[in-house]
Amino acid sequence: MRSSIHLGFIALCLASLCRAQESTGTTAAAASVQVVAVRARALIDGTSPQPLPNQEILIRGDRIAAVYPSGSRPLPAGARLLDLGTATVLPGLIDCHTHIFLQGEVPAAGGYDVQLLKYPASYRAARAVVATRRALEQGFTTIRDVETEGAGYGDVGIKQAINDGSIPGPRMFVATRAISTTGGYPLEGYAPEIVVPKGAQLIDGPVEARKAAREQLDHGADWIKVYMTHRSWVDEHGELVSQPTLTVEELKAIVDEAHGWRRKVACHAYNGIGLQRALDGGCDSIEHGLEITDAQIAQMVRQGTWYVPTLAVYYYDWDPADTPTGMRDRKRTAVHGVSFRKALHAGVKIAFGTDVGGFPWSIPSPRNSRAWWSSG
Fold this sequence. Notes:
The chain is α/β, with parallel strands linked by helices. The protein folds into two domains: 2-89, Urease, subunit C, domain 1; 93-375, Alpha-Beta Barrel (TIM Barrel), CATH 3.20.20.140. 35% of the residues lie in helices and 22% in strands. It has helices at 2-23, 26-31, 111-117, 121-137, 154-163, 206-218, 248-260, 272-280, 294-303, 324-346, and strands spanning 35-43, 52-60, 63-69, 80-83, 88-89, 93-98, 140-145, 171-174, 179-181, 201-203, 223-227, 229-234, 240-244, 264-269, 285-288, 306-308, 349-350. Helix 6 packs parallel to helix 7. The longest helix has 23 residues, at 324-346. The protein is globular and about 70 Å long. The two termini are 26 Å apart.
């Protein structure tokens, strides 16, 4: 934890240095590039087989200029030394599945629905700004934010504010609104004569699917996020079942459009029919993938499909064991760890993602995020 705090501090320092440099103008900035030397007990550089002991990292402006053993060369004139003592430093982390416009969906505070029904866009944007800073403070210098949950194209604006130095935050790749089908996303359970907002853009048919992809790409989406499954439950045989949403034809239209723009498609898919449709439709990544068959794992390897399992979030906030939703919660974790291990051993390409926003941004990970390791 201490190391990640130091890493976030370094990232914030760099962001501040860059903004100061930009605000002085190009000529003045070139003449006064700030230099910082970061000294630490150990450095994980991502390429060496072991951590490098007692290293110094020389940073000029917003770039690493050199890495060398501490004390092996004098500090440049005017350089500031940041001594982290016994801490270990590592490269900026990447979280490939976040939601800056979600804050943990606490049921006592109104859950998911209240965010769309009662919170103004300005309030949700303000909380998203805090979320991006927290990501940076926890050591994440890049995030892929996979939809705004009813906040429209708010992630595009947050990304712009980070890029121009107005607010601190990681580099962002954004998915904007996400795409699902009629009956495939909340808000739900209201009287049918009442029109309520939805957390994603809903489509029906390949034509609407392609148009939605074009709209989102046109408005700044770096990725397209598609929901291939919606709600899940445990059936009478004790098996996990997930409601499929888009058809293969609908997904293929989205994938074809996104790939034409040199963009990729992330598919939320728990298991079953919807996950199979995601693979057959040509998705670039499977998000969550709670239960993946051997045949589907082999297909992912053949197609080069990435897997973003978001393991930890499913251990957060279980319902009571004797309720249908509590049975579902426990079944999800029971099959998820198995699928992850099988995919790992088969050579599936796996990316790290937390699904933060599904749990509060105020904590680095859910309380029992390690529980899946002990499941077998």
